[in-house]
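Consider the tokenized backbone below.
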């Protein structure tokens, strides 16, 4: 029986169209999901949109559009990333529309009420609408939100609060005992430090007036709506069926399987402190791992809708191709540290790794098999050194993805390509073929050494075709077809360029270049 593997992204606000920063998270989660399917696990990959934010309300009012129409239009743009990024998610939940969500959010609230962890009090604090979060003065940078570079509002109202302070010791033990693992370690250390600094109860509702009537009403209190983070975090359990009695909730959240969140570093506190405490209060299972990525930047500044430097993933994919964008996001973004995006860097990496790597190797190998063996891969055992290099790749990828190091996983593939190319130069199959002519004339037998070389190279390409699927699905499929016999004799298709080199395009030239 396969293992159950449930992976989620965070769900973004829909106050504007999606940018490349969130595309990173989607592709990372998609790679994890595809990889585990490839290994035979039962996988659920979920994403969606966070519709009930005050940011969405303010953006709709600024645009002069009804909130419902505004939210639906921008949520559509996020859902359309499925095609843009070639995503394989199994579920997409919109918190304002999905009939599963509100009953589950209400059930979670009630479970915490029954645990004695929700109470009402008056509160005043500094609130960043962009983060949908209260800040302490010492958390600000020159009086501004560290994420959005805006001055927070002074908010005073009576809200419902969650007793986070009650779970301080339990949360510390969770991380000390490894019951929840955070990758990378630097983020885990930040969470431990935050917990050791002492946890304060936090507000989990907003007045209907301040929320402009938008959001999920607090059960039994028509004057308040749920805090958007309470509402949003719940999507991880409401989509599988918490609160509606669906059996799938038991499959994906109650069982012994893995439950992994993929999130950005700006929302670690919500996922690694608030969310586990809410689950402890409600008596529910916990996530097993929280994978945290750093930011993409443009000219050294975080990509953000509110910062005015957003890069549209659909435009990049339309110009350079989905696999090109996916590969850059996987192969060029490190486990720790922000990464500056430029189209030049994308083109350079893709031309080196995909066009000059995968594509060139495939064409060389198929051409030699046709030239020296009439297009049929020899049945000889592959060269031992090459077989060993190919056999190590799946294990290296498994280990890298287990620690959320996607760049290291991609490196396992590019290393195999480099090994195969070196092997070609060292063994010189064309020279072996020349020597073989004389041997065939004398003994009538083909060269066993050339058979082993060609067999090993074909096996490398087959391994690459399989292991590339989570990263660049379309290219992997084209590579697999190149090594799939076209007739009963076992003859391969003629060598074709499976990934042409990219050219850097500017502005309006991009669409025209794509058509060419």
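A designed sequence for it:
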């Amino acid at each position: 029986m396969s293992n159950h593997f449930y992976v989620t992204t965070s769900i973004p606000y829909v106050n504007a169209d999606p940018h490349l920063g969130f595309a990173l998270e989607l592709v990372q989660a998609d790679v994890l999901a595809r990889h585990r399917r490839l290994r035979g696990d039962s996988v659920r990959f979920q994403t969606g949109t966070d519709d009930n934010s005050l940011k969405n309300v303010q953006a709709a009012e600024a645009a002069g559009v009804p909130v419902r129409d505004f939210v639906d239009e921008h949520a559509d743009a996020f859902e359309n990333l499925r095609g843009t990024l070639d995503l394989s998610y199994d579920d997409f939940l919109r918190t304002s529309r999905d009939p599963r969500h509100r009953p589950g959010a209400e059930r979670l609230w009630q479970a915490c009420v029954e645990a004695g962890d929700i109470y009402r009090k008056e509160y005043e604090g500094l609130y960043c609408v962009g983060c949908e979060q209260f800040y302490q003065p010492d958390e600000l940078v020159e009086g501004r939100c560290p994420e959005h570079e805006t001055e927070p509002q002074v908010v005073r109202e009576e809200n419902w609060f969650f007793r986070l302070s009650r779970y301080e010791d339990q949360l510390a033990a969770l991380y000390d005992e490894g019951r929840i693992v955070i990758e990378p370690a630097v983020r885990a250390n930040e969470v431990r430090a935050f917990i050791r600094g002492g946890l304060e109860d936090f507000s989990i509702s907003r007045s209907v007036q301040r929320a402009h009537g938008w959001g999920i009403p607090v059960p039994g209190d028509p004057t308040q709506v749920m805090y958007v983070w309470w509402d949003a975090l719940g999507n991880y359990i409401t989509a599988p069926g918490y609160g509606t009695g669906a059996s799938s909730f038991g499959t994906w959240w109650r069982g012994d399987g893995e439950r992994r969140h993929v999130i950005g570093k700006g929302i670690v506190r919500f996922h690694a402190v608030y969310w586990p405490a809410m689950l402890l209060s409600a008596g529910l299972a916990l996530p097993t791992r929280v994978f945290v990525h750093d930011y993409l930047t443009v000219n050294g500044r975080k990509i953000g809708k509110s910062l005015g430097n957003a890069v549209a993933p659909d435009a990049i994919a339309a110009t350079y191709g989905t696999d090109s964008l996916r590969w850059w996001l996987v192969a060029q973004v490190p486990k720790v540290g922000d990464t500056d995006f430029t189209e030049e860097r994308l083109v350079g990496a893709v031309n080196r790794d995909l066009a000059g790597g995968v594509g060139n190797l495939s064409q060389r190998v198929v051409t030699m098999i046709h030239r020296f063996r009439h297009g049929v891969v020899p049945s000889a055992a592959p060269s031992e050194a090459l077989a060993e290099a190919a056999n190590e790749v799946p294990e290296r990828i498994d280990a890298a993805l287990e620690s959320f190091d996607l760049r290291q996983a991609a490196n396992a593939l590019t290393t195999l390509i480099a090994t195969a190319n070196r092997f070609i130069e060292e063994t010189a199959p064309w020279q072996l073929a020349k020597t073989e002519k004389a041997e065939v004339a004398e003994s009538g037998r083909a060269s066993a050494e050339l058979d082993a070389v060609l067999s090993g190279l074909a096996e490398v390409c087959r391994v690459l075709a399989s292991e590339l699927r989570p990263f660049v699905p379309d290219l992997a499929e084209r590579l697999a077809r190149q090594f799939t016999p076209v007739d009963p004799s076992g003859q391969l298709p003629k060598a074709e360029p499976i990934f042409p080199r990219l050219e850097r395009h500017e502005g309006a030239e991009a669409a025209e270049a794509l058509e060419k």
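The first helix runs from residue 20 to 38.
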